[in-house]
Design brief:
By secondary structure, the chain is α/β, with parallel strands linked by helices. The protein has two domains: 246 residues, Type I PLP-dependent aspartate aminotransferase-like (Major domain) (Aspartate Aminotransferase, domain 2), CATH 3.40.640; 120 residues, Aspartate Aminotransferase, domain 1 (Alpha-Beta Complex). Helices cover 44% and strands 12% of the residues. The chain contains 15 helices and eleven strands. β2, α8 and β3 form a beta-alpha-beta unit.
Length: 474
């Protein structure tokens, strides 16, 4: 493809992209295909000769788009959002065109220096104190792994990197019973072992109980197990649990334990001064992560990872190789030493575009609107005679269930599972299941870029109508 052809096709692609953004609300939210439907349309072998872009795009529309779940649909209430926005998309186009591999300052000075500056903008936006240094990871899961590896090296004095874990006493990781599975997965990868992940009980608000954490640490010390890392949550995935950083941080400081905070979703709400109470106790925090690619209008992947001691991170990951050496040396940051991958995309550009295009005030308005929608929906659910909240609302996250008169707990589990499947199969909205204290719940996360009050109102009408139709059909 020559440049003139590229130019022509690129203009057509931009028109397709704009049309998609304009019409996405008319599409089924969740893909309505069955397993294997898309695969059945794909040839069994690769083409031997090139095909025209026009034909490729026609096949894309016909065969691939029906199998796409539309995360940018305003009726997407599942999981947490993976938001996009026009400025972010434009920046991604530039990133793809430039095609820079930003592992070293020398391989793209602008990418490194922009990442440093933009991450400091964000640090100030969320109220994180001076002394934290930022790096963009692919995900909060990747940042948790970085924290676990850094904690491992701290507790072993760097010996694990040099000599491995064989023969040494076991190390323990502590998190709440609400913590994202990324902590357990990271502990497996980092060599702690699943059996040494301590899931600490939570209180009535689903927050980690500090006294239970202390008891677990004391018990491990008595058993010859080394406490290495505590992972606290700000906005845990299931019910949005917020762990108390003040008492947890004091316990970590007392025992010299690395303290990581996973704020993957709720961290975006820290741009709102009224929600910065979640960061009280940050003085003992060693690292924190949140994902602008969830709720801050920035395309996946973009996780803002902050560390208090970047040298500890670098000691954990740095590898000296002749082909990676540069004359700038310690004068610059080489982000390839700040995480697992050597190769790095120019992720800071889209975050820069988003912050500059919207400004802090507009971003705050959007998040406040989502939270207000959730507050209104919470009131509606609480007032409905045959529905109930299953956990306190946190920011824009709701867990509820349908509870028809006379139904016992097991019957409620069964009917809510059927209700969720019926809602999602309709294509009109998309929700996810949850278990709250062992009982089935339907989880609503409000936060898609284009979601407005009318979408939440329509979703609730759909829920009520579908629930009552299930009961009348029995």
């Amino acid at each position: 493809m020559d440049i003139d052809e590229f130019r022509s096709h690129a203009h057509q692609m931009v028109d397709w992209m704009a049309d998609y953004m304009d019409r996405v609300e008319t599409l089924p939210v969740r893909a309505q295909t069955a397993p294997g439907d898309v695969d059945a349309t794909l040839p069994r072998t690769a083409p031997q000769t090139g095909e025209p872009i026009r034909q490729i795009m026609a096949d894309f529309d016909r065969d691939i788009m029906p199998g796409i779940t539309h995360w940018q649909h305003p009726n997407f209430f599942a999981y947490f959002p993976a938001n996009s926005s026009p400025p972010s998309v434009l920046a991604e186009m530039l990133t793809a065109t430039i095609g820079a591999q930003c592992m070293l300052w020398q391989t793209s000075p602008a990418a490194t220096e922009m990442e440093t500056r933009v991450l400091d903008w964000v640090r100030q936006m969320i109220g994180l104190e001076d002394g934290f240094h930022g790096v963009i990871q692919d995900s909060a899961s990747g940042a948790i792994l970085c924290a676990l590896l850094t904690a491992r090296e701290r507790v072993t004095g760097g010996d694990a990197n040099e000599n491995g874990l064989a023969g040494g006493p076991p190390m323990a990781v502590y998190c709440s019973d609400q913590t994202h599975t990324a902590t357990e997965k990271g502990a497996k990868i980092a060599g702690y072992g699943r059996q040494f992940v301590r899931k600490i009980e939570t209180d009535a608000q689903f927050a980690m109980r500090p006294e239970a954490l202390r008891a677990a640490i004391v018990a491990d010390l008595a058993a010859g197990i080394r406490p290495a890392c505590v992972v606290a949550s700000l906005g845990a995935t299931g019910v949005g649990a917020v762990d108390p950083l003040v008492p947890i941080g004091k316990i970590c400081a007392e025992h010299g334990i690395f303290f990581h905070v996973d704020a993957a979703w709720a961290g975006s709400a820290l741009i709102l001064p009224e929600h910065r109470w979640m960061l009280e106790g940050q003085g003992h925090v060693d690292s924190l992560v949140f994902n602008p690619h969830k709720w801050l209008l920035t395309n996946f992947d973009c996780a803002a990872h902050y560390v208090r001691d970047p040298d500890a991170l670098i000691r954990t990951f740095a590898i000296d190789a002749a082909f990676l050496q540069s004359r700038e040396g310690r004068q610059v940051i080489d982000y390839r030493d700040w995480g697992v991958p050597l190769g790095r995309r120019f992720r800071a550009l889209k975050l820069w575009f988003v912050i500059r295009s919207y400004g802090v005030e507009r971003l705050q308005e959007i998040l406040r609107a989502h939270i207000t929608m959730a507050e209104d929906l919470e009131q509606t659910i609480s007032a409905a005679p045959d529905f109930e909240m299953m956990a306190p609302r946190v920011l824009s996250l709701i867990n509820f269930r349908f509870r028809p008169a006379g139904a016992d707990a097991d019957a409620c589990d069964e009917i809510n599972e059927r209700l969720l499947h019926a809602l999602n199969d309709s294509g009109e909205a998309y929700f996810t299941p949850n278990r709250v204290r062992g009982r089935y719940a339907i989880r609503i996360s409000i936060g898609q870029t284009r979601t407005a009050e009318r979408h939440v109102t329509a979703a609730w009408t759909l829920i009520e109508d579908t629930a009552r139709s299930l009961v009348s059909a029995q």
